[in-house]
Amino acid sequence: MGDIAKLIGKRLGLGLVILLIISIIIFFMVELLPGDVAQAVLGQGATPENLAAMRKQMGLDQPAVVRYFGWLAGALTLDFGNSIVTGKAVMSIIGERFMNTLFLASYAAVIAVPISIILGVIVALLRNSIFDRVANVVTLTSISSPEFFLAYILILYFSIKWGMFPSNAKISDGMSFADLLWRTFLPALTLVLVVVAHMMRMTRASIIALLASPYIEMARLKGTPPWKVIVKHALPNAWAPIINVVALNLAYLITGVVLVEVVFVYPGIGQALVDAVSKRDFPVVQASCLIFAATYILLNLAADVGAILTNPRLRHPK
Amino acid sequence: MSLFVIGYYTLILAASCLAAYFNKRSAFLLLFSLTLVSFVLGIIGGVGALKFVVVVAGLIALSAMVSYAFREFLITLSPTGVAKELRTAPLTAAFGMFVIFTYAIAGIFAPLIAPHGEAAVISGAFAPADENMLLGADQLGRDMFSRLVFGARNSVGLALTATLMAFFLGATAGLLAAVKGGWFDQAMGRFADVIMSIPSLIFALLMLSIFGPTIPVIIVAVAIIYAPRVFRLTRAVAGNVVVMDYIEAAKLRGEGTGYLIRREVLPNSMAPLIAEFGLEFCFVFLLVAGLSFLGLGIQPPTADWGSMVRENATLISFGDITPLIPAAAIALLTVGVNFVVDWMLHRSSGLKE
Questions:
Q1: What is the ipTM of this complex?
Q2: What is the mean pLDDT of residues B110-130?
Q3: Residue A172 CB-half CA count within 13 A
Q4: Optimal mutation site among B209, B311, B339, interface A, most CBs of chain A within 10 A
Q5: pTM of the model
């Protein structure tokens, strides 16, 4: 077991290094701004005195490296400074919204993961049948559609024509859980449609690759019944790729959520990011980007670790 | 039971029987499953649902016929070698080619096809369709159809330029890394790792917030985001070619890096790269569409599909589907390209089974 802990520790360390590099990119990219942040906020017509005062207030008179470490230290304690536009603390703007986004993403994941794995295995077993072909075309179409297209189609039918679900996913604190699920059903369904398609295709591919391996053929040739080939021989080795597929798609969910939140006016971090980008509110943009990147890296790490845990061969790298 | 229902069932049942009689197995299966589907849906949803089924089935049949005709057309026109390849193309791939062809025509000849100017205000806001305007007017009273046609030029053009640039950067770096190896290979690999661990949409938003949403910025941002993916694939494909004996021979002959890349490695790794180009184009196109939907793409008054959806989205709450047409246009092109790529990947990977 010591081996595994060491290996996982190594992966975690690598993830931290990548996150650190990303934080450098995120921070110093703003430094590339023509002029500086104070100039961008005050506009071209600002007087030199105003600019100097603004710079002093934002700490821009210090060298960039000093400010970077200040920012990083703040980020570790979840303090990202104040928004340029509203002056409120960044964390008070995006903190609760991030929880909302996590709620939406997990809502979608809870529906999508079982459906897509079951469908993916079925399609892999029925490969090259008419069912497989139809599934291929349908999932390809779903992947190829922009998220907002699916979202508006769902709005058009489920909310405007049939009036079953609200098109506006506004949520407030006092809502009951059932009400919450009902209000956020359409955004979750949009995400489910996209993610199921991805996951199904990836599950299908990994199962088919598995079924082509010699030991499966051996099992078949010695007369093992088909269900036993699947359950006893294929499935134990299929967990690794399946866990990988799930983690990768959860990572995808985290970014897919941005467009969906905007369409459904859902108060999540994605919408906050888009707002901040159009208002050029850099502290909010930096903080949300860092949070998104950290979640993304974490899920990718989870995929790696899951693969290591389920596949003993990866524990002994050559 | 209206005349339509009776006529429809008679028709498909007769067609199924004919197919069964002449031993056309797949045609029979297709027709009879259509019969069953319409039967079930007809009972549940009444004549309305039945009409919907008929329209959908008709559309699918129509696109199948168009694809078939287009494939035969291409086979007749092209030289023997290419024609032989084309014969193996499934109908979906032919459909994809037809879609790409249509979009190319619309994009190239946009000013000739569009009845009105791109930014010309010709009527009131959200005016309904009439003989002058095929799809009605948008939120400022501009002709929706004309903007759709111009959008083919702007949206696809932007995505294509960005993909070309990402491809140029990624493929060059990948080929160089494969041929040279050593520290260059390592450095590029780590660099690609870092870029790829930032979600693409988030990275694009970060860059656009700093440099502003102008066309050059979008192109460069997208190129930086997608170049590492191209790099990875090129590196992997070229890595397999570089170890071949003929590369060794060329090196011993004293050929330079440029010659090795152009004359030896590139021609032998072309097939997967072309398929990858199609795939990358889809990703880039969707990303750019998403950006412009968020108001951070091509800026108005230039017509662009993503922002057209956003600007006219209010119409959807009145049950009008016009705002969905640009979104459908995006989806259709991506599906088409994906169909073609699917076929090419299938062919080049030898996944015939």
A1: 0.85
A2: 79
A3: 1
A4: B209
A5: 0.86
